[in-house]
Amino acid sequence: MLQIAICDDEQFYREKIRRLLTDYLEKRDLGSSISFFTSGEEFLSQSENNVKYDIVFMDISMDELNGIETAMQMRAFHSDTFLVFVTAFIDYALEGYKANAIRYLMKDTLDVAMGECMDAILQKMRTSQVTFSFIEGERKLYTDNIIYIESSRHKSVFYYMESEMTHYQIYSRLDAVEQELSGCGFLRIHKSYLVNMKHIRKINNYTAYLDTGLELPVPRSRFQSAKEAYVTYKGAM
């Protein structure tokens, strides 16, 4: 189930993007939940929107807070959402890519450009999926949407962002999960916590501050190595 947001102050284009997306996804038997926002302020009014969506289609030319400013605030949370800028003006292209947009679509070419745009996004998504046999059944998860994993009573509990925070449990030691996710950007900050560094805002005062607002403890014995690993990770991005 793809979580998609469309942020545009013109109803005509909100509906057009929705229709093109629906046609594309239905042909590929892909489920989706599409949310609409009429301004950058409305999008940012709910803090979970910074990390909630797999894909955001953002109009650049909106009143008050424009699309680039909105996207930059979203990126301040280290969101790995796939961002697509939509506009009628080519002049914003260079500035728009500073927000790490995957595509820049002109409004007058949406019909022909949407397919290639979604192909590119889905290809990138497929390279960042993992499958586990949870107590709740086998699940294929996007690594970017795994917030953290907690060791609890012989189980590992995955905290996963979909339309809301969900958790999945597996009878496996956290050591084994850590090995399975090796190379995917996860950091062992505590014997009981394996955290996705994409969702860490900072490590300070023996605490890891996550973009969801959660704070997890980092013991003294791990603090320096965890902080160094995180700084190295951020520097390589």
The count of helical stretches stands at 8
Sketch the major β-sheet: 5 strands, parallel
Task: Tell me, briefly, the overall form.
Answer: globular
Mean pLDDT: 89
Overall helicity:
25-40%
Helix/strand/pairing category = alpha/beta
Q: Could you spell the SSE succession in H and E letters?
A: EHEHHEHEHEHEEEEEHEEEEEH
Query: Based on DSSP secondary structure assignment, what is the total number of beta strands?
Result: 15
Uncertain runs are none
Distance between the termini: 27 Å
Strand order of the largest sheet: 2-1-3-4-5
Radius of gyration: 19 Å
How are the elements arranged and paired?
Elements: E1 2-7, H1 11-27, E2 32-37, H2 40-44, H3 49-52, E3 55-59, H4 67-75, E4 82-87, H5 93-97, E5 103-106, H6 110-126, E6 129-134, E7 137-142, E8 146-152, E9 155-161, E10 165-170, H7 174-180, E11 186-190, E12 193-196, E13 200-204, E14 207-210, E15 215-217, H8 220-236
Structure description:
- It contains eight helices and 15 strands.
- A five-stranded parallel β-sheet has the order 2-1-3-4-5, sandwiched between helices. A five-stranded antiparallel β-sheet has the order 10-9-8-12-11.
- By secondary structure, the protein is of the alpha/beta class.
- It is globular and about 55 Å long.
- β11 and β12 form a beta hairpin.
- The two termini are 27 Å apart.
